[in-house]
Amino acid sequence: MSYSHCDWPEDEIKRVGYRVVDEIARYLTHLPERPPFEPVPGEAVAAFLDTPAPQQGQAADAILDEVVHGPMRWPFGQGHPRFFAWVNSTPAMMGIFADALAAALNPSCAGGNHAAIYIERQVIAWYRELLGLPRSWGGLLVSGGSMAALTALAAARHARAGFDVRRRGLQHGDRPLVVYRSAEAHTCHEKAIELLGIGSAQMRVIPCGADMRMSVAEFEQAVREDLDRGCTPVALVASFGTVNTGAVDPLEAIAASCRRHGVWLHVDAAYGGPAVLSDRYASGRSALALADSVALDPHKWLFVPIEAGAVLVRNTQVLRDAFSLVPPYIQAAAPADPARIDPVFGFPWFSEYGFQQTRGFRALKCWMVMKQFGLRGYADAVARCITLADRLAAHVADAPDFELFEPRGMSVVCFRYAPPGPVAPELDALNKRVLTAVQLGGQYFLSGTTLAGRSYLRACIVNGRTRESDIDGLLPAVRQAAAGCLD
Questions:
Q1: pTM across the whole model
Q2: Each residue of 38-85: pLDDT tens digit?
Q3: Strand 232-239 versus strand 177-182 pairing type
Q4: What number of H helices and E strands is found in the chain?
Q5: Which contiguous run of DSSP H or E holds residue 398?
Q6: Higher pLDDT residue, 436 or 333?
Q7: Contacts 24+ apart (CB under 8 A), 396-402
Q8: Which residues have a Cβ under 8 Å from the Cβ of 128 and sit 6 or more positions away?
Q9: Residue 100, exposed/middle/buried by CB under 10 A (0-12, 13-18, 19+)?
Q10: Which of 7, 204, 208, 384 falls between 20 and 30 A from 125, CA-CA?
Q11: Is 361 exposed, middle or buried (0-12, 13-18, 19+ CB in 10 A)?
């Protein structure tokens, strides 16, 4: 049967679709039997990079054969139950299906009166509820914490600069703008400040104490010094769950200080936000509500397939003022009665509240995964990850040949192999070699970090497929890798 590239008959869509589902099912169900990570061999790399574009189209089955023997042969491995690096979770099944459904619908979610827009508004309301933020807050979905940071800090720059940044530009500012971040804050915030034209030289890094939490006193001192120098303090980035150790900054005290100085408070809860669903971190809800903006990454601890981020703000008008190119006198307001919306244009467009004009249907996978879990299911999953991390920390604390970094928070455990004998610098070099050996060893995949000037192995448990047996086997695997490094 002959048909066009874009106009397939129903039977062929079903046939190929069933095979895709078969490959997904085979991959996910057999993933625990595979190594969590396998490097792409050199000859395959060369094939990926050197093969020219095809001149003629290929049959669907031939394309899928290449996918199975290429991308699905050498994945990064995030869905594996023993992949503990960074903050990468397993994708929820309904999110996987949602990506396919969203692609079939293929809506442009800049705005308009179609269902995808209302799904996104509903998702933002659900995330607001999850975090315990007031109903007056709003926001939009973005690609992840980095874009959430750029969006929020652009709004902060507009609101706190003291002049019209959009019209005059930073070249004509009367006073240098300054942004602050905790020493443990994610580096994406520095990248955002550079892109916003403020410059990394105007970013003050506020030290943390031994508890890995930002020092409020140091922040106060930095603000006073900048005011004396004639600078304008714009924003502070604090963390609710750092990626390094899971630390939570003292948000109540930070928020009070920011209010005194008129500084915008952005809280990075990209990883740690869902922890508020657990008993241990439930108090974080009231703390997050003190911020001016909050970042949340559903593709981390909410198990939504990458990419899916959210930025929520106290005052959505500030977002609109920072990004909209629609003149204020014709900006549409959301009607009090949804039945009275514009039949074509609907509510005010999301493209007025962020940088993207072309926006995909990210909301569907967020919506479907929330439906799959529910808030109670999410609470159980988050609590279970924290319990597994506690189990790992207990193993490390009980082992005479390992050192546990404390304090630790949320589902992060930092530790290092420390057999009797080597002094600290030798241990640093040894643990770097051990990290590589573990990553290439085929049993576990960890990341590394530096804390208090020393090298550590780092495990972050955000995988819904991880079991107690996976936790219990980690230290023996590290010992095995270390034995090879000591030979």
A1: 0.96
A2: 999 999 999 999 999 999 999 999 999 999 999 999 999 999 999 999
A3: parallel
A4: 16, 11
A5: helix 362-398
A6: 436
A7: 396/475, 399/475, 401/479, 402/475, 402/478
A8: 134, 135, 137, 138, 139, 312
A9: middle
A10: 384
A11: buried
- C-alpha closest to that of 380 among 273, 277, 235: 277
264-268 sheet: strands from edge to edge: 138-142, 309-313, 293-296, 264-268, 232-239, 177-182, 203-206
Nearest to 375 by CA among 132, 90, 119: 132
User: What residue ranges do the domains of the chain occupy?
Assistant: 107-360
Other Cβ atoms within 10 Å of 202 Cβ, number: 19
| Contact between residue 264 and residue 258 where contact means Cβ atoms under 8 Å apart | yes
- Rounded CA separation 152/144 (Å): 12
Alpha-carbon gap, residue 117 to 124, rounded angstroms: 11
Q: Give me the sign of the Cα torsion angle 191, 196, 197, 201.
A: negative
Q: Is the pLDDT of residue 340 over 80?
A: no
- Tokens, residue 174: 């009367």
CA pair distance 379, 272, nearest whole angstrom: 13
Name 325's Cβ contacts closer than 8 Å, sequence gap at least 6: 352
Q: Which residues contact 15 (CB under 8 A, 6 or more apart)?
A: none
pLDDT number for residue 336: 72
> Which is it for the CA torsion 116, 121, 125, 130, positive or negative?
positive
DSSP string, 67-130: HHTTTTTS---TTSTTB-STT--PPPHHHHHHHHHHHHH---TTS-SSHHHHHHHHHHHHHHHH
DSSP letter (8 states) at residue 54:
P
Does residue 332 surpass a pLDDT of 80?
no
- Confidence label for 330 from pLDDT (cuts 50, 70 and 90): low
The structure tokens listed for 258 are 């920011």
- pLDDT, residue 341, reads 81
Tokens of 383: 């609590």
Q: Which residue has the tokens 């996918």?
A: 67
Q: Which of the four pLDDT bands, split at 50, 70 and 90, describes residue 329?
A: low
For 107-360, the fitting CATH number among 3.30.300.30, 3.65.10.10, 3.40.640.10, 3.40.50.2300 is 3.40.640.10
Element (H, E) at 296: strand 293-296
For residue 87, with 0-12 CB atoms within 10 Å meaning exposed, 13-18 middle and 19 or more buried, which class applies? buried
Reference 391, options 471, 307, 456, 331; nearest CA is 471
Taking the mean position of all CA atoms in its chain, how far away is CA 24?
24
